[in-house]
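A sample follows:
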Amino acid sequence: MFFSLAIDPIVFSIGSLPVHWYGLILGVGALAGLFLAIQEGKRFNIPQEFFMDMLLLGVPSAIIGARIYFVAFKWEDYKDNLIDVFKIWNGGIAIYGALIGAIICGIIYFRYKGYAFWRIADICAPGLLAGQMIGRWGNFVNQEAYGGVVEESFLRDKLHLPDFIVNQMYIGDAFHHPTFLYESLWSLLGILLLMVLRRQKFVRAGEIFLSYFIWYSIGRFFIEALRTDSLAFKGNSGVASFLNGLWSPMKWLGFEQGYLDPAYGNIRSSQLLALLTILAAILLIIVRRVTGQPKDHYSDPIVSTKAAAADAVVPESAAHTPQSAPQVRQPEPEKTPDELPKE
């Protein structure tokens, strides 16, 4: 016997205020990302307070960006009930919107602190993947962002998933692809890859952050097409066919695309954006290399321009402190014959 929701989305309640698994999991993901950034920041003598303040500013910015992005594509569902726009605990945030919000916040905050954007973004890249890796389990609890229908045997015998995941993937009257799990595991591999890559001497400033976009977007392109709740729009049929053709190797592995209502759209927005992001990131790496823009390597020291400027200023008290006169050695007076030593 299966239930419509195997896991209660509410962890506990404080009075009449429910605490949702979704928000709790997102919080754990943010803390995991913060931990990785602080640990790597120690190599460059960046104080942990810098990253903690960054988190306090970045998380709200990411949530706002993610919600705006999602609502913009689902406006028909929200325009008559605006209060639902703010109910993020029910799900409905888009990762690309979160990245846009976080990047805008980062550009402003890093400049305020005197750090180069690319250098700090490189440090934060594995942490972003960690947040996404853990955050996807919030979708698991909410039974959202899942894929198309599959047989129970596919989950148990081919993927060898434990019962609590298999049962949670029974939604409506069928089992579904655990796309949350696919993306979570892809993010875990990405963390390991970036940690190895950033130890290589050839890596330039900004290239770890751009590699993050390439890696995540490759996985997102293929995983997105499995989903049945994709944000989509009606676009050129040639573009739609091109995207389907790029995705077709997944069929060799036994996967089928999730259903997308033609009346809703024929192009999954996240899939198209993933492809454009991959191309843009690769092109940006090449252009920056050719033009010699990234003068720093990843391993080079990171210095805040504001901190350096403060160190260069001589304190006023020191400027007015009188310098002691140099000591001049006086010649010894010549000794008289009586004072000469006797032999």
In short: The CA atoms of residues 26 and 135 lie 5 Å apart. Residues 48-73 form the longest helix (26 residues). The mean pLDDT is 87. Residues 18-309 form one domain.
